[in-house]
Known about the structure:
Chain A is an alpha/beta fold. Helices cover 33% and strands 24% of the residues of chain A. Chain A is globular. By secondary structure, chain B is α+β, with helices and mostly antiparallel strands. Chain A: It comes from Luteibacter yeojuensis.
Amino acid sequence: MLKMTHLAKVYRTEVVETYALRDFNIDVKEGEFVAVTGPSGSGKTTFLTIAGLLETFTGGEYHLDGIEVSQLNDNARSKIRNEKIGFIFQAFNLIPDLNVFDNVEVPLRYRGMKAPERKQRIMDALERVGLAARARHYPAELSGGQQQRVAIARALAGSPRLLLADEPTGNLDTQMARGVMELLEEIHREGATIVMVTHDPELAARAQRNVHVIDGQVVDLSEEPRFHAHNHAQTARS
Amino acid sequence: MFAYYLQLGLRSLRKNPVLTALMVMAIGFGVAASMTTYSVYRATSRDPIPQKSSVLYNTQVDAFGPENIENGEPADALTYIDVTAILRAHKAPRQAAVYPVSVSVIPDDAGRLPMREGAYANSSDMFAMFDMPFIQGHAWTRDDDEKHASVAVITKDLNDKLFNGGNSVGKQVNLDGRLFRIVGVMANWSPQPLFFDVPNTGGFDEGAAVYIPFTRAIDLQLPTNGNNNCVKEPEAGWDGYLHSECVWIALWTEMHSAAEVATYRNYLNGYAAEQQRAGRWNWAPNVKVRDVMEWLDAKKVVPKESTISLVVSLGFLVICLVNTVGLLLAKFMRRAPEIGVRRALGASRSDIYAQFLIEAGAVGIAGGVLGLVLTGLGTLGTTLVFPEDIARLATLDPVLILLTLLTAIVASVVAAFYPTWRAAQVQPAWQLKSN
């Protein structure tokens, strides 16, 4: 589903080159739930933004769902983001001027979907996260946990092949975090591929496999799969 | 997606009413200033007879000599001697002499006071040449010209005054105590600029109420009511005046091919050379044959203040647009996090361009509506800047309404190009990381 080989990301200024990722290798199979852990500044989020085609990379190869993405133009990358990837951010990143319904609708609009299908998908997604009754509420009227559920609904509405979550519970209290985590586990059980960046060992332990990143490189081996026998255990080499 | 982007744009504009009002005012005032001055410029520079302006030609033949003219430009009018000679030669398919006269129209009803009216003494061809619109009867004929007939064409306004709008063809009109038989009634006709009488009107005038044959006016010794320039003092009497070197008659021709124009110009040069050989003139032939727009251009009919005010107001519009660029930039860049989210969710750069340009277009529509109101007020206030006969031409017609709205929208979208480009360059990764 997601395969990076010898990937590098370098930030260059006139005086210094900083490697955010260096010889980064990872292979996430379809249906896996992988937690990417590591200390702050290790390159976890950079990996996630490159994985989500929000950022380009400097070297190496990246295949997403069998497509080599380095040569794709902006339109093609946007189309892949829209159709294959769902994002869940630590800060929720809902658009404050739009109500819950309209927030969930955003990716479907860019897909050019007809209004009846959009509405069906939005309501299904909101039902799924338990917020159908809040469809006309604005983000400011919701708790943090509810906002993250809306973000998850937005990510799910387009039925993406890959969910990328960046510290999805980082801004939530323990109870809300537990609820969101249970939701992600449920989504994974239904067959979604999830890559979650976190530095919370407790959350990481609930993933199927852990990948540890230090100084822009994968340095740990995967754990054995724990949830689904049909999923492949993967080794990410440094 | 257009409706979606428009909806987002309107929502965004409602969210910041002060900023939105500032942008709308900048666009509205800028567009109104430029459209108000443009309405005057358009009125003064337009083609007064577009269907025929390229086939109607004014004739100039230098009867004054290089010492008495400026920049080699012959006098605007011709002498009676030259006009009658050229008319007699009949080198153009249609030709018309014309000069302005002033007449007293004396109503039949003894209880009503005479009315002083502007009139033209002209050849019969002029009516067909200038597409003058008849609502009753028709023009007099070349035969009437030959016979120096006492016939007249009057305008609808005068017909209303004298005959209560009834059919007056065949009836008599008393001009300066002489009776003229009415052969036709014209709709009020006053092309602006009044191209065929620019030297006497400056190009802007309400036109005449009466038209009588040139030959009859000469018989009646009706003097010109316009300019009369003489290089030598004429001999005494009307006959002396007619045979003087005074210029006071315009000569227009209608020609439909370059060959006809060339033949006519050759004839004029030959005529002028003949005058030189005969000892009347001691300078080389100097003739000008210009079509309507060349003629208006040569006579600089567009007032200088009209051009200057248009340039100044366009400069003001540019300043307003620069302000709008700044306001839009501030507005759009404040939404960088939203742009980041939209990009992450699948919006391409093209989508961001479309969304923000449509939002700018919405500002343009609002600015256009404000601009329309202000342009309407502006056209009423043009008398403060321009002479009355020019100011009255500035009107808010459907074309100007459309142009005002279009200018506002285009100006707003142009102003939004740079802010939108910046918005489209927002790196979603950085925005999402920084949140």
